[in-house]
Amino acid sequence: MTKPNKETPVLKGIDAINFINEMKEADVNKACRVEKERTFNHFAQLAAISNFR
Predict the structure, then answer these.
(1) The pLDDT of residue 44
(2) Cβ-contact 39, 31 below 8 angstroms
(3) pLDDT (tens digit, 9 = 90+) per residue, 5-44?
(4) Positive or negative torsion for Cα 29, 35, 40, 44
(5) Separation of alpha carbons 44 and 23, rounded Å
(6) Which of 6, 17, 24, 42 lies 20 to 30 Å from 31, alpha-carbon distance?
(7) Phi/psi zone of residue 12: left (φ > 0), alpha (ψ -120 to 50 degrees), beta?
(8) pLDDT digits over 18-28, tens only?
(9) What is the Cα–Cα distance from 46 to 27, expressed in whole angstroms?
(10) Phi/psi zone of residue 13: left (φ > 0), alpha (ψ -120 to 50 degrees), beta?
(11) CA distance 13 to 18
(12) Selection from 52, 53, 51, 33 nearest residue 41 by Cα
C-alpha cells in the first residue's frame, strides 16, 4: 500500500523570491532550435547502434 502524498508547501519570503528568479533565469537559458536538433540527432545515432535486448 502506498503512502499518501504530502501537500506542497507554499513558498514565502526569500524562498519565493529565489524561486521566481530561478524560473526567470531558466526561461532565458532555454536551448536554441539548433542545439535541440543536434541533441536529437545524437540521440538518434546512439539509438540506432544500441542493442537493449
Answers:
(1) 94
(2) yes
(3) 999 889 999 999 999 999 998 888 888 899 999 999 999 9
(4) negative
(5) 30
(6) 17
(7) beta
(8) 999 999 988 88
(9) 29
(10) left
(11) 9
(12) 33
Tell me the residue type at 18.
Answer: N
Residues in Cβ contact with 50 at an 8 Å cutoff, skipping those fewer than 6 apart = none
**Rounded-to-integer distance, Cα 40 and Cα 35, Å:** 9
Distance CA 50, CA 46 (A): 6
| Amino acid letter, 6 | K
Which set of grid coordinates corresponds to residue 40?
A: 536529437
Q: What is the pLDDT of residue 29?
A: 81
Taking the C-alpha atoms of residue 6 and residue 47, their distance in angstroms, rounded to an integer, is 38
